[in-house]
Amino acid sequence: MDRQITVDAVLEALGRVSYPGYATDVVSLGIIEAVEPLESGGGFAVIVRQASASDQVMHELAGAISGALKRELGVPRVELKLRKLEAELGEKTGRARLEGTRYVVAVLSGKGGVGKSTVAVNLAMALKQLGMTVGLLDADVYGPSVPMMFGAGEERPRAAGGQNFYPVERYGVKLISMGFFLTDKSPVIWRGPMVMGAVRQFLKDTLWGTQDFLIVDLPPGTGDAQLTLAQLVALDGAVIVTTPQDVALLDAARAARMMLQVHCPIIGVVENMSYFVCPDCGERDELFGAGGGAQLALAEGTRVLAQIPIHLEVREAGDAGMPIVLKDPEHPASRAFMDLARGVLAAMPKD
């Protein structure tokens, strides 16, 4: 084996191999379990999570991986070893219900900084205001903000025996988040399998009880947390959060298409930071552009569920630990969030 070819070089080359049917590479998707040098004859063994039951997909993936390593690095021999997942990528979404929960709705965005967690928090609170019983799972393990936005940063989940624990409850909403297990300055430095394990534990080991909705605040992008959620539980829909500018729309479109790939219906688009109304003159100003949410919804065959205006009070309410929907129900942003909740509720499958 050529000693100049390192495992890191192999992983870098694999980072340019897209999973069949996806725009995302196999490393980012968490498909690559490990890369190991072969004991004899040179080359590498690539351990791959078998994310599809389709022989054609796995054949295409094997060819793409082998071709990339031989073409880019000159690896003389490539062996693929498959490890079966407990569920195929997307193909079992819709088959396994989360016990005790009527609907599971994901809130996601293509990029950070668009207010996804603010939307998830206020959606959960708005559904509670509509008389629903609601849980909120903060699956954004790298940037958990739900505890702070509910004023529950000092709370800790109670153990319930074995690996189980009770969610924290605040304002009548059940909460679980990595933020409950960290100090304020603790960094989360995790690779994909650890992220997947955390999402699995939060979903399955939390004693959610009986509830109408579980809202899942997913991290930005199209990675391990999203795939794990889709593999483990039936999703009733996804809400895509974006701001009007082009770069956010491009990333949001990728997030929407990923959810469709895992057979999760898109409920609609939330255009956050949609416009600003001058408090002095009442003039409306689209600071980040106009019509972006509608453009995304049209392209993805869905609709705009809400346009959330920019208001200082929304940020202040979140920082103070009381969502704006609860703090000021008559605020223009609160009314927009209530419209969002009604749209999500109306889109749910009827029993």
Outline the structure in words.
There is one protein chain. The chain has 351 residues and is an alpha/beta fold. It folds into two domains: 7-84, GMP Synthetase, Chain A, domain 3; 101-347, Rossmann fold, CATH 3.40.50. It contains eleven helices and 13 strands. The strands form three sheets. The chain has an eight-stranded mixed β-sheet, with helices on both faces. α1 packs across α2 (55-73).
Instruction: Please identify the oligomeric state.
Output: single chain
Number of strands: 13
Distance between the termini: 60 Å
Helicity level: 25-40%
| Overall pLDDT | 80
What is the fourth-level CATH superfamily of the largest domain? P-loop containing nucleotide triphosphate hydrolases
- Choose one word for the global shape: globular
Largest sheet: 8 strands, mixed
CATH topology of the largest domain: Rossmann fold
Q: Classify the secondary structure makeup into a structural class.
A: alpha/beta
The CATH class name of the largest domain reads: Alpha Beta
In what range is the share of β-strand residues? Answer: 15-25%
Tally the structural domains.
2
Low-confidence stretches: 85-95
